[in-house]
Amino acid sequence: MVAAGAAFIGEIFFQIVLMRSWRGRGMVQSCFFGFVAGLSIFTCLLFFQKPAAGLDRTIDGLFVYVALSYCYFHFNNLGETARRIRILRELKRSVSGLCFSELRDRYNAQMILQVRLSRLIEARQIRVSEGRYVIAHPALLWSARFLVFLKALLLGRENFLDAGPRVERKSSV
Amino acid sequence: MKEVIFSLILFLVGFLIQVVVWRMRRPRGNHSIALSMIFSFAFLGGIFWVREFMSDIDILRAFFVFVSLVLAYLTTYSAVEVDSPSLLILLFVAAAGPEGLTPQTLSEKFSDDLLVGARLRDLVKDGMVEEKENNFLLTRKGDGLASFFDWYRGFLRAPLGG
């Protein structure tokens, strides 16, 4: 567990160094290399540990490290892609708040769509073929299908749009 | 290894309890608290049954494995409640089959209300934003979170994001 903790701290350190040196670009890549660095630290610590860690403890530690890395990746992803965080930050930038149309001028569906399409194309999950979007590599698609399955299991809904409760609109949004 | 297996079993028990509770009556408000209670119950229940067969050190290790598993699940669960636009794009494109989807058709599936309005309503519901005379303002809670991410993203030299 100590090795897992130290590896996780090492991962965070490397990821931050990489992000800062890349001027904030390549969040996914920095998380990946940070993970690899952490894994190297984990391996070295196990190798030099006295008495040597058995297979049981190695697997336990590795499991904890991978799970924490997964959480850390998604924490970074919040700042990178979460709409709610962006909305909060846009509201913070405005002194007297924003009405919905003002917010829409700064952050809207077209902007969200374009950024995500660029990311998906760069990650080779989709590609453009004769002016149309088609699936390229299905890795993220399978993640999406798994979430649809979880949504159906937990929420009893099978369509892929928002499954949250439909709040009655009393606001101007 | 046995701690991983034990924790996985307890996690599955917690997950099944969640499925039953959610299908009967999904809790209102922040689900993290309800989920934490369910998984805590599952873990404590499991420990009660095996405490004679596991040493304190083994139980502690199982606890760390279990907590990391639950944290990973809580991270994933947020994507179950609120659809990610990226994953929606993939699902729509996949549903169109080998012919694919034109940019215009894809664009028509996403409106400002779906992608921005819905999230703004969530923020109001969660007490992070308040509405006053058609204007949206941060509450103290929302301001705290926005400040943290302003600082963190600035520290990483990262762009605005979203």
Q: Can you put this structure into words, describing what you see?
A:
- The complex is a heterodimer of chains A (173) and B (162).
- With 173 residues, chain A is mainly alpha-helical.
- Chain A has 7 helices and 2 strands, in the order ααααααββα.
- Chain A has a two-stranded antiparallel ribbon with strand order 1-2.
- In chain A, α1 (2-21) packs antiparallel against α2 (27-48), α1 runs parallel beside α3 (55-81) and α2 runs antiparallel to α3 (55-81).
- The longest helix of chain A is centred in the middle third of the chain and has 27 residues, at 55-81.
- Chain A is globular and about 65 Å long.
- The N and C termini of chain A lie far apart (48 Å).
- Chain B has 162 residues and is mainly alpha-helical.
- Chain B has helices at 2-25, 31-50, 56-81, 85-95, 103-108, 112-125, 140-155; strands at 129-132, 135-138.
- Chain B has a two-stranded antiparallel sheet with strand order 1-2.
- In chain B, β1 and β2 (135-138) form a beta hairpin.
- The longest helix of chain B is centred in the middle third of the chain and has 26 residues, at 56-81.
- In chain B, 34% of the residues are buried.
- The model of chain B has no long low-confidence stretch (mean pLDDT 89).
- The interface between A and B is large, with 89 and 86 residues.
